[in-house]
């Protein structure tokens, strides 16, 4: 399989070059040159595979022979050996219409582990094969940083530096990042906001000389390897229900921020998985809800919510979807993204909006509705939702029709967001792995928020 850019100005490249490139050199996003189509027979033959076996089948379609099968198998097995549940991503039945796909059984109790455990191993493999050093630089508002650090800590050939806004991530998230004491990890606590951190990263990556001299690589959710890893659990969850005769077509409900996770679901749909509709759940930052309902993509005013990992105005993976909506027409995508840059909005015509609404339904969950869903499902089903998952479940309650079966993706363990859950008087006990973090020493360097402050630290570290 080769990869091309949504803007059409990058010559086709292989899988490994695609994961190393991150953002495409022409400013677009990398996509596979074609999407593999699965026959009903092929789907049937996958139905009883373990998570790891299924992941291997799916990655093989997208990697081809660039990584030998035995190596790919080892990468997959190593990546999911760190998960605490033997099913990796188990499905829990809540009632006849609703099942929860628990994606939080990895090392940092957030769904990002599913992709970043794999990407970490992949980077280590590539570093070994090409005998080159990989320096990862990223910014986080919480979950990505912890998960990326866990993905590469102690690994040969890789160093990672993560910027987070000092004192502005949740306590558990801060501890998950800063209690790691491996020599290849540097945590910079930046005097500023998450936006400051992101701007610094963007500018350092744009400094081509600096980027090449220090072999900088990205770990953000536009990396195609992350999308592919997330596609696996849509298939796996569907098979769990289909095997029990509980559904032959399902909805998936996805708490959405940067459109990465739900794009993985869209990819599964395009490959032939029998998905009825993708329910796109946002919080009060509802640019994507407005796009699905009205066909207008335009950032609104930033709102702080109980689901901070979804507090996003411009969704970095959205361009991938536009590319398919416009029939893989890179000229159209280039024009639309140019328009977005100039006018700050994109409006699509009625026929395109109809195509969007054939696959997606969307709902923006208000802060109180999110907490209501946590209280209601706790009282009624004795099941504790984290605030991100609660948005997905609340959207399902609004948008799933009678008789439909919905699998709601659970993107974080409730212990990570205890502050919100306590507002409804619900007490939880932390898993022992999280409890243990509170006794460990922290390693972080507090730095000023200028590019030079960060560069000085990087030059010392790399
Ligand atoms: C990152 C994240 C999301 C949003 O996922 P996207 O791929 O950015 O849409 C939702 N929930 C949690 C807990 C997350 O960490």
Automatic annotation (TrEMBL):
<dbReference type="InterPro" id="IPR037158">
    <property type="entry name" value="Thr_synth_N_sf"/>
</dbReference>
<dbReference type="InterPro" id="IPR051166">
    <property type="entry name" value="Threonine_Synthase"/>
</dbReference>
<dbReference type="GO" id="GO:0009088">
    <property type="term" value="P:threonine biosynthetic process"/>
</dbReference>
<dbReference type="InterPro" id="IPR004450">
    <property type="entry name" value="Thr_synthase-like"/>
</dbReference>
<dbReference type="Pfam" id="PF00291">
    <property type="entry name" value="PALP"/>
</dbReference>
<comment type="similarity">
    <text>Belongs to the threonine synthase family.</text>
</comment>
<feature type="modified residue" description="N6-(pyridoxal phosphate)lysine">
    <location>
        <position position="112"/>
    </location>
</feature>
<dbReference type="Pfam" id="PF14821">
    <property type="entry name" value="Thr_synth_N"/>
</dbReference>
<keyword id="KW-0663">Pyridoxal phosphate</keyword>
<keyword id="KW-0791">Threonine biosynthesis</keyword>
<feature type="domain" description="Tryptophan synthase beta chain-like PALP">
    <location>
        <begin position="98"/>
        <end position="405"/>
    </location>
</feature>
<keyword id="KW-0028">Amino-acid biosynthesis</keyword>
<feature type="domain" description="Threonine synthase N-terminal">
    <location>
        <begin position="2"/>
        <end position="80"/>
    </location>
</feature>
<comment type="function">
    <text>Catalyzes the gamma-elimination of phosphate from L-phosphohomoserine and the beta-addition of water to produce L-threonine.</text>
</comment>
<dbReference type="GO" id="GO:0030170">
    <property type="term" value="F:pyridoxal phosphate binding"/>
</dbReference>
<dbReference type="InterPro" id="IPR029144">
    <property type="entry name" value="Thr_synth_N"/>
</dbReference>
<dbReference type="InterPro" id="IPR000634">
    <property type="entry name" value="Ser/Thr_deHydtase_PyrdxlP-BS"/>
</dbReference>
<protein>
    <recommendedName>
        <fullName>Threonine synthase</fullName>
        <ecNumber>4.2.3.1</ecNumber>
    </recommendedName>
</protein>
<keyword id="KW-0456">Lyase</keyword>
<comment type="pathway">
    <text>Amino-acid biosynthesis; L-threonine biosynthesis; L-threonine from L-aspartate: step 5/5.</text>
</comment>
<dbReference type="GO" id="GO:0004795">
    <property type="term" value="F:threonine synthase activity"/>
</dbReference>
<dbReference type="InterPro" id="IPR001926">
    <property type="entry name" value="TrpB-like_PALP"/>
</dbReference>
<dbReference type="InterPro" id="IPR036052">
    <property type="entry name" value="TrpB-like_PALP_sf"/>
</dbReference>
């Amino acid at each position: 399989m080769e990869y091309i850019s949504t803007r059409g100005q990058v010559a086709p490249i292989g899988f490994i070059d695609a994961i190393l490139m991150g953002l495409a050199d022409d400013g677009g996003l990398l996509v596979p040159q074609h999407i593999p189509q699965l026959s009903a027979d092929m789907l049937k033959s996958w139905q009883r595979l373990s998570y790891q076996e299924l992941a291997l089948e799916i990655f093989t379609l997208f990697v081809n022979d660039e990584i030998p099968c035995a190596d790919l198998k080892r990468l997959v097995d190593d990546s999911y050996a760190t998960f605490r549940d033997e099913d990796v991503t188990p499905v829990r039945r809540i009632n006849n219409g609703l099942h929860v796909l628990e994606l939080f059984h990895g090392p940092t109790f957030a769904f990002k582990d599913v992709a970043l455990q794999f990407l970490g191993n992949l980077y280590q493999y590539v570093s070994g094969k090409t005998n080159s050093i990989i320096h990862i630089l990223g910014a986080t508002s919480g979950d990505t940083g912890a998960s990326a650090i866990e993905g590469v800590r102690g690994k040969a050939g890789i160093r990672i530096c993560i910027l987070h806004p000092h004192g502005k991530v949740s306590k558990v998230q801060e501890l998950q990042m800063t209690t790691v004491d491996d020599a290849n990890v540097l945590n910079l606590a930046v005097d500023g906001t998450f936006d400051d951190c992101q701007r610094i990263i963007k500018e350092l990556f744009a400094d081509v000389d600096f980027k090449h001299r220090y072999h900088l690589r990205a770990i953000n959710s536009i990396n195609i390897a992350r999308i592919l890893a997330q596609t696996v659990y849509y298939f796996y969850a569907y098979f769990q229900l289909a095997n029990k005769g509980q559904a032959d077509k399902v909805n998936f409900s996805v708490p959405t921020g940067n459109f990465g996770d739900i794009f993985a679901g869209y990819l599964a749909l395009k490959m032939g998985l029998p998905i009825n509709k993708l329910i796109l759940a946002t919080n009060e930052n509802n640019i994507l809800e407005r796009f699905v309902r009205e066909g207008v993509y335009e950032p609104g005013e930033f709102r702080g919510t109980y689901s901070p990992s979804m507090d996003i105005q411009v969704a970095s993976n959205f361009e991938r979807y536009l590319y398919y909506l416009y029939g893989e027409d890179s000229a159209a995508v280039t024009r639309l993204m140019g328009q977005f840059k100039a006018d700050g909005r994109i409006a699509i015509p009625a026929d395109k909006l109809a195509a969007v609404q054939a696959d997606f339904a969307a709902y923006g969950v208000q802060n109180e509705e999110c907490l209501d869903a946590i209280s209601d499902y706790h009282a009624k089903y004795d099941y504790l939702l984290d605030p991100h998952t609660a948005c997905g479940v609340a959207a399902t309650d609004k948008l799933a029709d009678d008789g439909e079966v919905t699998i709601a993706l659970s993107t974080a363990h409730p212990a990570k967001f205890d502050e919100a859950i306590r507002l409804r008087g619900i007490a939880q006990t932390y898993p022992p792995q999280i409890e243990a973090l509170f006794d460990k020493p922290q390693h972080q360097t507090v730095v000023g928020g200028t590019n030079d402050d960060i560069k000085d630290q990087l030059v010392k570290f790399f």
